[in-house]
Amino acid sequence: GYLLCEGCAQGLEPMDKEGRCSVCFSSCSFSGICNACSASKPPFLSAAAVFEYSGPAASLIKHLKYGRQDYLAEVMGAYLAAQLVSLDWRMPDCIVPVPMAASHYFVRGFNQSELLARAAANILDRPMVLALGRCSGGFSQAGLSKQQRALMDRNKIQLLKRDELYGKHILLVDDVYTTGKTLSCCAESLQIGLPASVYGMTF
């Protein structure tokens, strides 16, 4: 009856907020905001991940995305919800997944970020809103350098549902946080809808 074997379950240890930037969740030698966020604050209020990208957590991502084991999103979404509570963030009014290009959706058959967002939304009893879309010409960022990722244009992300975001506290969900560029682009587009706040959470 379990989605994870005992070995993987025991190897999953969520990251603690101590010693991390309160905005981007990067490692900090002090409590508060890191130098990068102090110099240029991201368009989200705070962002965090549940796990480091290693061990069973990395395996789960790979099995979900490339192994077509979409049922894993159910337990992964539960970890997202648990991390939200442990960070003592305010409860979101709605949960928005990072969009996927139509060409990738056609190949994969699902958007892993949408599956994670839906699972977390069900647990938190909050609506999931497909508020963002990705313009044609999108490509996978897996394997790209930090400099290449930085070239991603915000205009590739479109706001589809403005009226549903006004004055709302939004939780933006993605699978992996690498440089934060994707979350930042999505958060900038969400800000057009004038939400009260945007938080970002990745597995």
Please give a structural write-up.
This protein has about 200 residues and is α/β, with parallel strands linked by helices. Helices cover about 35% and strands about 15% of the residues. The chain is built from 8 helices and 6 strands; from the N terminus they run ααβααβααβαββαβ. The chain has helices spanning about 5-10, 35-40, 55-65, 75-85, 100-110, 110-125, 145-150, 180-190, and strands at about 45-50, 95, 130-135, 155-160, 170-175, 195-200. Helix 8 links the parallel strand 5 (about 170-175) and strand 6. The longest helix has 14 residues, at about 75-85. About 35% of the residues are buried.
Secondary-structure map:
Elements: H1 6-11, H2 35-39, E1 46-49, H3 55-65, H4 73-86, E2 94-97, H5 102-108, H6 112-124, E3 132-134, H7 146-149, E4 157-159, E5 169-174, H8 181-191, E6 197-202
Parallel strand pairs: 1-6, 2-5, 5-6
Antiparallel strand pairs: 3-4
Helix pairs in contact: 4-6
Report the sheet-strand fraction. Answer: 5-15%
Number of helices: 8
DSSP strand tally: 6
Order of helices and strands: HHEHHEHHEHEEHE
Low-pLDDT parts are: none
Helix/strand-derived category reads: alpha/beta
Radius of gyration: 16 Å
- Principal-axis shape: globular
How far is the N terminus from the C terminus?
22 Å
